[in-house]
## 1
Amino acid sequence: MARKARTRRTFGAIRKLPSGRFQASYTGPDLVRHTAPQTFTARMDAEGWLHRQRAAVEGDDWMPPTVRQPPAVTVDAYADAWLADRALKPRTRQHYRYLLNRHILPTLGDLLVKAVTPAAVRTWHANLDTGPTAKAHAYALLRSIMGTAVEDEIIAANPCRIRGATRVKRAKSIQPATLDELTVIAEHMPARLQLIVPLSAWCALRFGEAAELRRRDVDLRAGVLRIRRGVVRAGGQVIVDTPKTDAGSRDVAVPPHLLPAVKTHLRDHAQIGADGLLFYGMKGGQLAHSSLRWHFTQAAEAAGRPDLTPHALRHTGAVLAARSGATLAELMARLGHTTPAMALVYQHAAEGRDQQIAKALSALADTRPRGAVE
């Protein structure tokens, strides 16, 4: 069967923008390229606009369009509109608002968006007085806002062009807890919170995931935790919501050796009913991170690891999973990651055992019978 010939456009051009909308343009009788004053949701709408322009040119009704000036909007006003238009989780919205108010708007807020140059961005970035993580987050947010301004045709190009500015080099690597240290830490926690230590470690849970676990999320027969929600605190409010990404909603297999402890905790410490919390605060509500940290700090001291934080439990579990031979895809699924970047961090940490492996190989050599064939 003969292939259908592709028709070639003879008037104007249409291109799809990163936003998914379509932009139409054509070269007029004045030999100047003219772009539609707005973008279009569907390609056929862009086709219709080009058709009308072509009819005007061929009918001698064409007049050079007036040059449309980009709106004179400040970074402050545009960032507010940008934030309002985004469907964000409450904690993310709060974080973006903090970055804007603390790090971006005090310096760049009064500038017109079209007046923000690469040089202005470099100067702002160089003078940011904050830690490396906040600096990277602030830059990434500004770059996203300016990227939308490009799509809105307020500016022609994104002025955020600093290479590597969104990457953060960890100031110090987290040393995972050993199995013995996990045992000591759990033993020094209050009885109602002892299970959160091995469960968070062996299942690599985020704090918000562990603090929102309820009886109905524990399937003892299948041996899994069904992670479907997390709890965060934003603006003084306790907010229970779905995970930020689809990958965060997942089933996590509980190592079989831990199931007896889970059963005991459900019997002795979890709240009553299907919606009963596994871990809760003194007043019965969701456990606050500050409360867990207060107990955890003392327990970590007793284990001789004052450097550990509750988040180190998730890191420990991720490294344990990587050491068990989990592939990158399996690690991403267990941790609820959408990109390989973070999972690779844990795989690299697991690779740090190379010296131990080399020593173990030498130990095998030392036990080889004399006269064994090489």
## 2
Amino acid sequence: MNEFEFINQYLKPSNERDDTLLLGIGDDAATLKLNTHQFWHISTDMLIADRHFFSNESPENIAYKSLAVNFSDMAAMGAWPKWLLLSVAFPQLDKDWLDIFFNTFNQVLASYHVKLIGGDTTQGPITTLNITIIGESDRLGLQRNDAQIGDDIWVTGQIGLAAAALYHHWDKINLHEDEFKICEQARVHPTIRVDFMFQARNLIHAAQDISDGLLQDLGHILTASQVGAKVNLETIPSIQALKKYEYYNDWVLNGGDDYEIIFTAPKNNQEKLVSLAREASVPLHKIGEVTKNTECILMCNDKIVSYSKKGFDHFEEETTVY
């Protein structure tokens, strides 16, 4: 049984909708309707040492990334983060480490005007961080099941850099020093896209954050919307220097850990999206189109290419911890 089979079998059957709960299990966040113009979006993510970050990682990097991965869920919903709960398990309380961690943690919260409102603490064998985030918007929010045939498919930022940095850490490759610096920065400090996605929310049909691999996460949108896609490999944004490595296609298609946003939008919104991205200094690239058939076709130089879609799965035996 893999991670998604577990979710579908044991969690989704309990997802009963009511007048308040508009969206439950199966998207980037659950959505509650408070009134006609006020919606709350709630998501949670757990990070475990030597599974989601190296145990010897700097506390600054761990603090930032623990928030970035949660903020990306709010970005994918077109919501603004408002409140946060933090539950932690530590083998021991190291004041020096905690001082540095919470200095960065609180700085990031303050920059987005997010308040820490609760959580839990316990002693545990490994450092574990669990964050529950609550965001707010004036509408239902972006969902995975709203992609429309003919929509353009867009991604923010650059894809595959974090995966390349991990391959370097695992000694599968040896990136040049300047390449590793760029990729490692993307791994430990993914750019938060909340501002852009909140401003663009009315121009977008469906969205998803890229955490488990571009093809897998796009697949969630396609499955939920019962549509297909044609994706152009050569238009997926990355850095040119990585293309010489044999693992490049796997990094951009299946790597994950990017925390960029993939979304679909009507073609007539292209000019507005490009203009908004330019004003916000957000790299934005169109990589394909939503199609009627329910398969994802990968193109390269106008030819269909075969590929292996294998995104991240927490319960896969061969998955290497990082």
## 3
Amino acid sequence: MKNKPILYVVVPCYNEEEVIEETTKQLKNKMEKLIADNKISNKSKVMYVNDGSKDNTWKKIKEIHKKEKYFTGVSLSRNRGHQNALLGGLMTAKKYADVVISMDADLQDDINAMDEMLKKYSEGKDIVYGVRSSRKKDTFFKRFTAQGFYKVMKFLGVDCVYNHADYRLTSKRVLEEFENFKEVNLFLRGMFPLVGFESDVVYYERKERFAGESKYPLKKMLNFAWDGITSFSTKPLRFICLLGFIILFVSIGIMIYSLVRHLTGNTVSGWTFLSISIWFIGGLQMISIGIIGEYIGKMYNETKQRPRFIISENLEEK
């Protein structure tokens, strides 16, 4: 039985000035209640991670830090994207915490699910995934694409928790082991299952965004999904090889067909079929080269070994 662990709640923020005060209000109430119920230590805190915001987000975080004892923050030197900002927060928080919960700033994640997460942690679970109980509030397109993504990831052999985003509890020892993962191309929801240790899930109903705009429009969502696929599976490369064999067999059939047409004196009539075949195979070749190029590009980024995040300011050290 773990007794009163120090909890840090890591919250990545990018241009969240419209919602951060309400987020602070709700998280403050939750932290005070958890402390009063002796579920966490009074040294616990919420750590906002400013991901190079262009508005007054960081200014508000510093004001909150001065007024509220349970709130602190770090600021990245520039915008690095949600996954890098979250990683920066996790790696910083593990220095001070026994257990860390990560969540978004938009209040869509149900903060009351923290109670069940901490309960499972006290029972010996090192990772607890927050999983959406349903997607009824999503549009048909978003629901269809999201569910399709998880099915594709499973088909490609990626160990990914279905309907889980980045709302999760992780113990200190998980984060210490996670620090050994040096990937530059981050897909955290696929990386944490690789760490191992005992895990469990907590189901919750996802809410509407409290204020502001989503930081994940369709283009970013598609890029994120593609990064997840190409960072965790080489099956697309195998599909190219399989496709090559299929085209080889088809080309043999076309060759036999062409010889028969030639011998019967009907070569001109096959022009349409031949031109379509050339364009089709050419298109497949370009797609295949593009997929191979994507993997080569990722290897290029990995070999440079540039830092995934740079913290310019840490309020916890002031």
## 4
Amino acid sequence: MLSAHAAAPGDTVKSYPARQVAPDTWVITGPLGEPSVENQGFMNNPAWIIAGDQVIVIDPGSSVQAGRMVVKAIQKTTKLHVTTVYNTHIHGDHWLGNQAILEAWPKAVLIAHPDMIAKAKAGEAESWIKLMSNLTQGYTDGTRAEIPTVATTDGMVSKIGTRSFKIYSSNDAHSKTDNMIEVDNGVLFTGDNVLNQRIARMDDGTFSGCIKAIDRVLTLPVKVVVPGHGKPGSPAIMKAQRDYFQTPFDAVKVEYNAGKSDFEMKPDVARKLAAYQQWNGFDAALGKQISLAVLEVERQ
């Protein structure tokens, strides 16, 4: 087990390999699981795209220490400067690495969903800093919230360098502050609306909203999908995630309409989810996901 400690200047999480997944596009695939002492709080999929004379980063990680690891990886692939950072949603394991990007490239512009910006300013940024510190026993201490200043709009297309980036926003999916980003080189970054072989946190979102968000992008002509967690892959990742969201939601609705409580329906819902039992976090999340689905059914 790693020993936890307050961050010293220049502290960096252990290195993970960057893999080129498409022309000019690299992804570091973080380990599955929750933030911990063992993974130093790092478990998302930071990425960057070289677009002519500049670099665009997506979700640089969970802390200044994780962000510094990402900076070093970027610098191994190019000497160009990072000019732009997209943050996919409010959950701090994806964006608290912004601090490290600005340490290296102070003029970089940070971009996110307007509700993400508002929630971060309203206190969620500090809540995530505290949570990451608690989960890593202080390893991420020293992290400062660098909140994005530029807000996206749904359907917004930005030409940055030699690449175009299109935004697909949602207000009722994984975090209710979500952006998916389509790059004109055939790559789609989904944030946590889509994961690969990992059960999604649903505390802040809705099953129906996630299904709707995925339906919007299922037919896009993309070749590579980069999920928020888990390995990048083909668009089949999106279909698998959609099927997961639909299966428990439909199962819970049937059991709820039959008059069962969340506790009583759990065995039957679990049987219908047998195909997903090997996904990371399944056993720990099942009960909560059923309860959240019940609440969503009641609201409909």
